[in-house]
Design a protein that fits this description.
Helix content is 51%, strand content 10%. It folds into two domains: 114 residues, GMP Synthetase, Chain A, domain 3; 109 residues, no CATH class. The chain contains twelve helices and seven strands. It has 279 residues and is mainly alpha-helical. Strands 1-2-3 form a three-stranded mixed β-sheet. A two-stranded antiparallel ribbon has the order 4-5. A two-stranded antiparallel sheet has the order 6-7.
């Protein structure tokens, strides 16, 4: 069997979009980031490298928002610093449907002279100016009521909240799960006791849950190559199989025998994975 150390730096346990996906997080708070008027006519669509693609309702809005690129990028980086967004691009596209009557109704916001108005903004810069005035007023009111800054991103959170805002808490949990998953891949023989020495406050139920998910994910990939009858070009399935057998059997590497490996994987998968190595 191949050494698990060969997989260092080459494997990531996470796949697909999840609750910590930057586009999902930004979409949920888009109105707060760019203002209600701008949010009615735009929405984050896709993150490609360091560039966030933003869908708009028309080429006019694409042009209007492009003038605000620097301010938008600054706000995006404050919200999701780990995403590494340095550019934004605008293109006409379909926006997600918004439920409720709040977005369809005219927003009542503070005008320049403190008067309340339901008149829509004439352009994107005006909408952003109004939004900033509203945000500044709301921030002053929150601070007066004892709201505090998130220790992760400095966003204001309620006095009764923990040290992190919801976004930072989700990001922290995602990073914690990534670290645990990586340990279970690289050193599955550690078991709960050994892993708990490296991960602060690790709970048995947390460990068991991540272990079950990894075993299911790894087996699904191994099952697919067994059905296809061929491995990927880099043969990564052999590394996954090594971790799978150790984590599934909960045996130390030195206690594994060829018979145990074959029993865990099954004859067909075992031969597909190792027959070329054994010859």
């Amino acid at each position: 069997m191949l050494k698990l150390a060969q997989a260092l730096g080459a494997w990531s346990p996470g796949e697909g979009a999840g609750p910590s996906d930057p586009v999902i997080l930004l979409g949920a708070a888009w109105s707060d980031i760019v203002g209600a008027e701008n949010a009615r006519n735009s929405h984050p669509a896709q993150l490609a490298g360091d560039t966030l693609m933003i869908a708009t309702t028309s080429s006019v809005w694409s042009a209007q928002l492009s003038y605000l690129s620097e301010q938008i990028i600054e706000a995006l980086r404050a919200r999701v610093p780990r995403a590494g967004i340095t550019k934004v691009r605008f293109r006409v596209g379909k926006l997600p449907a918004h439920g409720g009557s709040g977005l369809r109704a005219a927003r009542v916001i503070e005008g320049e002279r403190g008067q309340r108005t339901s008149e829509p903004a004439s352009d994107a810069p005006e909408a952003l100016r109004r939004f900033r005035a509203t945000v500044n007023a709301a921030e002053r009111a929150k601070r007066a009521r004892g709201w505090k800054e998130c220790s992760g991103c400095t966003a204001l959170i309620a006095p009764t909240s923990g040290p992190l805002c919801t976004t930072c808490e989700i990001a922290r949990e995602a990073e914690r799960e990534r670290q645990i998953s990586r340990l279970l891949f690289e050193a599955p023989w550690l078991g709960f006791a050994g892993t708990a020495k490296l991960i602060e406050d690790l709970r048995q139920d947390e460990y068991d849950s991540i272990r079950r998910r990894l075993l299911s994910r790894w087996w699904d990939r191994l099952r697919r190559v067994r059905l296809a009858g061929t491995l990927s070009r880099d043969g990564a399935e052999r590394l996954i199989a090594s971790s799978y057998v150790l984590l599934k059997s909960e045996l130390a590497p030195e206690r594994l025998t060829p018979a145990i490996v074959r029993n865990v994987l099954g004859d067909d998968l075992h031969d597909l994975l190792y027959e070329t190595v054994e010859r």
